[in-house]
């Protein structure tokens, strides 16, 4: 009956129509149904086959029951950004199938459990019903596990129909279950049964195929939060205080998980890093500032609402010059907003964070690999500049699995900045007439020396406060003293560009430029290539730190105009750049939106072309 | 070697004078209870032969929180945010856990915005002294009620307080604090002994000290005033702190008339019986005497509760013997081969 039903399907199966390694699969499931293992396994298998693939999890703020989608994009050309349409849908959730049907391209494929009842509103797609219940029933799996392994049916059927080798799946499962035989064999059994069923009962009438490539060599699979955590541990992190919040929690949790692997002395059992789950973000930042002040390389990780709570302590850290690193894994705000959706909407908030005159040093990682790199670099920069350093990641980068070049061991020694212990402290005193001023800029580089708790030199101690203080850390309400201190902080901030990552440039001296940052880079690269095919050549600049470097200004000056592409409502990056180069502000054209989903190349191309017509009709 | 009796000479056993423990001149009001507390901190540290460089001071915001500048100039200090000294102290103490932490807060700082952090500091048994200079009133903002002000209290601009007070000792007790005491700035002798016991305690020592505000809140009939305190103070016991190295001579005490508590460092707290028997190792007993004191309208002072062997924050970690902040770069960066291990863990496609 199945075969009959599929006869007369509109799609041909000529090899010339085949789409190989260049399509999108979306899995529509119910949150909490255990589909993550199935989906990650497929992604890993594709990765192992050498096919560039990206996975995006669109999930609700819920533990169990609400719909969740997982999208895999296979891209032989290596594009990792989101796309808006689906080629293949695995519809396991009756409540969302209508929406999924609409998302399919003409000629797309729908896999669904054969007992799923729905109105078939499309005639231009291929249907593959799957006997999920029957296969599970025929297997010898214990009833308690049935719901969890049910997802493995679609793994088997999908593999059979698009050509994913089952040994790749088995290898991915072995990795997932750390080579534990039992769970691997339970899952593989279902997958084999499902694949066999498909082989015998379904006729392939769609055009989607996978074939092995060699384009993921030297790459790993990781999410940005894991990368940030590992980078920090390789960066000599000594203290982390945090409070749970989506989408940042897994960063601190990964630190916790990897302390025994990376920072434990196997002989003594001693650990060189401390992690504390605080009672709230107010305390998490207080602990982090205390530790940073005490001479520990310290970080906290949070998201928008948590950062709002941390603001007051960060103002104190800025003014009293305490090094701390803050990871802000951005989600949609204001307020509680869309807690499980991605955004780049904290840029201006962080840039001006705190009351009074403040400036923030911000790092903007643009890939998972860079999350690792900025993990260790941020700690060096914070201690060198004796200042809070913010790393702004986002949910898309932080929580989704990406293929990324393998992590490189830090290529620079740990920089502890200008901390002085007893011996060096005495030398510094000898060289400076016997006096120590915590805020005294003796080197003329706007960065004073600092001593920390435990220094036993009788002259090393000083009293830290958020109230006005002079060069010797004494309380002062003198206006002139206040001004001098704040001017030095401003100079120190301006000079921070000597220590922060310079922008990434792809400049071929075209007339039009695109400026972007963070995860928005992925759709921007793809958009650049599409625009090129449409006859518009653009240069790219990816900002990796704020305040901006001169290269950004030069880029703007050397182009007729630049689009600034970002994932927020107001064009925050464009606002910040405009302030830094006001005379060229009108040459910056904002392309921004925030709907909670990562930007797509298609949208960016459309926006650019619209603006090209309206604003620059002659192009 | 004959030990120098610090009570008789001008230098203590580590060769320091009282001057070495002093701070900047106080800018608080003349007669402020906080100043006498600062003096007793100086005296306790001097007499206990504590090196000022081994002490780290913390505070929040308010009159009380200014006072760490008025003692121990040679110690590091950090004046943090309102009610959020506990988190700051916790982070900083991890930097070098051999340091003696002394935090000074007030009732405005601890019993309102700081309540959460205060209780979590206690819950974690963070080893430090946590002093609340408690006067029932906001001084720096000129005379508003604090959360420890008693119901019915009348203040010049504020009128009558209609709310019930927070009892800081009770809060500490119910949240598993391992040392809880109440002192009175008008009773310096007892206060010094309480401070010494608190410093000797290995864990969080909460010391709620009634410390009158002479400017905004010192009316003779109010709980937080000198006069009311002097007239209504009832000591739970006569407390004497005996350092670990001193030979204990207890001939002064009749057998059965005193209780001894051995502290973690070997020092002793002798609690001479006054009115009634009191067992400071019972949390329930402590709550009961506080409840009775409130009912009977008395200012009950003394060591309410102590558990010298309670597991501390640091007992819950595997800290190196070297202070964390003195670890060298090669002790905090994993070796290069770990990078390959990690890449493999992340499904490296070779």
Task: Write up this protein.
The complex is a heterodimer of chains A (619) and B (350). The N terminus of chain A is likely disordered. Chain A contains 21 helices and 24 strands. Chain A has four domains: 214 residues, Pyruvate-ferredoxin Oxidoreductase, domain 3 (3-Layer(aba) Sandwich); 184 residues, Rossmann fold, CATH 3.40.50; 77 residues, no CATH class; 112 residues, Rossmann fold (3-Layer(aba) Sandwich), CATH 3.40.50. Chain A is an alpha/beta fold and 619 residues long. With 350 residues, chain B is an alpha/beta fold. Chain B has a single domain, classed as 3-Layer(aba) Sandwich (Rossmann fold). Chain B contains eleven helices and 15 strands. In chain B, the strands form four sheets. An eight-stranded mixed sheet of chain B has the order 2-1-3-4-10-9-15-11, with helices on both faces. A three-stranded antiparallel sheet of chain B has the order 12-14-13. In chain B, a hairpin with a 5-residue loop joins strand 5 and strand 6. In chain B, helix 1 crosses helix 7 and helix 3 packs parallel to helix 5. The longest helix of chain B is centred in the N-terminal third of the chain and has 15 residues. The radius of gyration of chain B is 22 Å and the shape is globular. The mean pLDDT of chain B is 93. The interface between A and B is large, with 84 and 60 residues.
What is the secondary structure topology, with strand pairs?
The complex is a heterodimer of chains A (619) and B (350).
Chain A (H helix, E strand, L loop, with lengths): L1 H5 L12 E2 L1 E9 L4 H14 L4 E6 L8 E9 L10 E6 L5 H7 E10 L12 E5 L1 H7 L7 H4 L1 H12 L3 H11 L4 H21 L6 E2 L9 E4 L1 H11 L4 E4 L6 H14 L11 E4 L3 H13 L4 E5 L1 H17 L3 E9 L5 E5 L4 H5 L9 E3 L4 H18 L2 E7 H5 L2 E4 L16 H10 L31 E3 L13 H16 L9 E3 L5 E6 L3 H13 L4 E6 L1 E2 L3 H8 L3 E6 L5 H9 L7 E5 L8 H15 L4
Parallel strand pairs in A: 1-8, 2-5, 5-6, 6-7, 10-11, 10-12, 12-13, 13-16, 15-16, 20-21, 20-23, 23-24
Antiparallel strand pairs in A: 2-4, 3-4, 9-17, 13-14, 15-22, 19-21
Helix pairs in contact in A: 2-6, 2-7, 6-8, 7-8, 9-10, 9-14, 11-12, 18-21
Chain B lengths: L32 H15 L7 E5 L3 H4 L9 E4 L5 H11 L4 E7 H7 L1 H9 L4 E7 L2 E2 L5 E2 L8 E2 L3 E2 L7 H7 L4 E6 L3 H13 L3 E7 L15 H7 E3 L1 E6 L15 E5 L5 E6 L9 H14 L2 E8 L22 H4 L4 H9 L5
Parallel strand pairs in B: 1-2, 1-3, 3-4, 4-10, 9-10, 11-15
Antiparallel strand pairs in B: 5-6, 7-8, 9-15, 12-14, 13-14
Helix pairs in contact in B: 1-7, 3-5, 4-5, 6-9
